[in-house]
Amino acid sequence: MSALSATASPHVELSHVRMAFGTREVLRDLSCRFPRDRISVILGGSGSGKSTLLRTVGGLVRPQSGSVMVDGEDITKLSESELYRVRQKLGMMFQHGALLDSLTVFDNLAFPLREHTRLDRRAIADAVHVCVEAVGLQNVDGLLPGQLSGGMVKRVALARAIIGEPVILLCDEPFSGLDPISARRIESLLIDINKNRGVTLIVVSHSIPSTMRMADHVVVLLSDGVVEGSPADLQRSTDPRIIAFLSDGEDPSITAPDDLPGTTARGAIPASPERAAALK
Amino acid sequence: MRAIQDLGFAVLRFVVDLGALTVFTLHVIRATLVPPWRLRLFVDELFKLGVLSLVIICVCGLAVGMVLGLQGYNTLVRFGAAESLGAVVGLTLVRELGPVLTALLATGRAGSATAAEIGTMVATEQLDGLRMMSVDPIDLVVAPKALAMIAVLPLLSALFIVCGLAGGYLVGVGLMGLDGGNYLASLQSAVDFHDDILGSLLKALIFGVLIGLIATYRGYHAAPTSAGVSAATTSTVVVASVSILIFDYFVTALWGV
Q1: Cβ contact B133–A111 (<8 Å)
Q2: Does any CB of chain B come closer than 8 Å to the CB of residue A92?
Q3: pLDDT tens for residues B28-64?
Q4: What is the pTM of this model?
Q5: Domain map of chain B by residue range?
Q6: Residue to test with chain A: of B24, B114, B134, most A Cβ within 10 A
Q7: A125-137 pLDDT, tens per residue?
Q8: Whether ipTM exceeds 0.90
Q9: Yes or no, beta carbons of A84 and B124 under 8 Å apart
């Protein structure tokens, strides 16, 4: 691992994590940190283990070795029932929403409150409507998830993730499959949640422009390790793989090296400080 | 050599599956005993698995009873024992066909639907969504479905038997001209409440446990793809059907039911 900058006190920290599914190793000796009250974005090619990393932080998959500290607690040592206690501090926005398809939007949002609080019906309804308005939706209470557009599903999923007032919010590709306007709206919501509620955000994304706009901290998953730092640190990097990443495929003269996960492109990489400067 | 390897893998997979099913079963039992109890979800499942299966159970029960009546009459009449038709139809239905056919029908209709529903929830990350909301999916999704299956199967089996007896009566009395009183008297004298009726309900209960656990287990462990859901559904029907027939033999042999 090469650290491009020192990070603030970590809210989530992974140390020497190894995660494999059968013989396929997804995370190999991975160590990285996600600072408290900041927006961290995880970048990497398809199949590089971004979503697995996020699911590891949520305790949905257990690594074969290494530690995962979440808010000061090593969750790899916890039983499933103990994990439920830790997860009450977490919210997760899944890539495809993961809304309960037999429940209406209102019931989906009210569900965590009904499960974990003693709020009465009126208080729950108020909390649901505050969240629905916060994500810019209206008149969706009675709709089923199947009746919503992709952007609406993402916003309902975001509302459900924040309704329990988590201290850490995990977002798996919140901008994928969205038109630019919807993507910008989600991006603004995430920034707002971080700034106004002080929630630590860990976002998996493929979008370099939105990463550069919103991230305080970036973690890039590469086949041979992790590079992390601020967006400015990454832009100053002369590492050809980082430069290839930040180009976001817009410059055809930049092609990815063979070992860049999820890519098959071949060719020389003009890894120069000038190129890095040009990308700023 | 290759065949021995394959056999070894198959045995290992069976043992691993059996262990996982045992752990899963214990988890379901714990979710059932420890609050919160999901009474409303349980009632919803009773409706889905039970009430929505009523038509198929009644129609099949009636058809099976009519066939039994016809076959039984044609055989018994050769020995001059046509008056015993009620006993033959009754004992066949109560001891064997009622619980077994009901279980096979429930596997095809409700068991496959249960596996597909849970498998789809796995594929669409709904169960992971529940875990992230600190809600145990076994408590919320699996236990109510498994329990409803266990509760509903003896009732469906009883209904199947009643419809079958009615079918036998229709053919024996309505078509073949047997005396209705004789049919019922022979049925009443042959079928014992303790040995036959309670035994039949016990069989159905055991089959309900098998279907409930196999369907929910297969769905819960489905691969998160459409092919995975399809495989879970298919294997539910195959494994549950074979298990029902094997357990039927052992229950009959051990308890004489």
Answers
A1: yes
A2: yes
A3: 999 999 988 899 999 999 999 999 999 999 999 999 9
A4: 0.86
A5: 39-255
A6: B134
A7: 999 999 999 888 8
A8: no
A9: no
